Amino acid sequence: MKEPRLYTTSADYAYQELRHKIVTKQLKPGQRLPEVNIAVQMGVSRTPVREALRRLSSEGLVNIIPNSGARLASPTIKEMEDTFIVREKLECLSIAMAAERLGDRHLRRLEELVLDEVRAVEERNLEAYLEAYEWFHRTIADAGGNKVLAEFVGNILARTNAYVVFYDPFYEQDENPTLEEHRSILESLSHRDGEISVALMRAHLRRSMSCLKNPDSDD
Fold first, then answer.
1. Fewer CB within 10 Å, N- or C-terminus of the chain?
2. Rg of the chain's alpha carbons, rounded to an integer?
3. Residue 60, number of CB atoms within 10 A of its CB
4. What's phi and psi for 80, nearest 5 deg?
């Protein structure tokens, strides 16, 4: 049984509920998100809804259009390709640095996160999977010791995770290739092999991009 969520503010409540609906595909790419309707449905004022939409916008999940309102994002293939090009550069740099400096604490954390990913895939829980996936990559960036780079990686991860929410065939796959890819990355990092780690990260990200469904298609 799923544990009840704990909310600190109305804005946090609105954010978590909207994000849950997006991740579980109750809302569709390009769908309008009228503040008034959402506020009424959630029993809150428009202010926390507006704050929640801004937060979702910063993650690439929502587009806020002046004088028009908010819509669920609907990224094109070109947008996704451009984002993954940037992400590849950032993460290949971060994993090269991590391979040189990785300590036991980060290594244990990566091992735990791979197990969390396995559990999430078995349970078909996209929210839990995305959290473990994001923290796997964030932990690698953190292990490199460059806070500025880690911040950039965190920002780009939020955006590409939005693409996974919209277009990754998570619920349709019997096996998730990311699990084996993350295990291989973890293995190379445990041997402090920077060259192989970079190659594995590059291959992982390019395969991830290629697996996203084409949002411009009719499928």
1. N
2. 18
3. 21
4. -65, -40
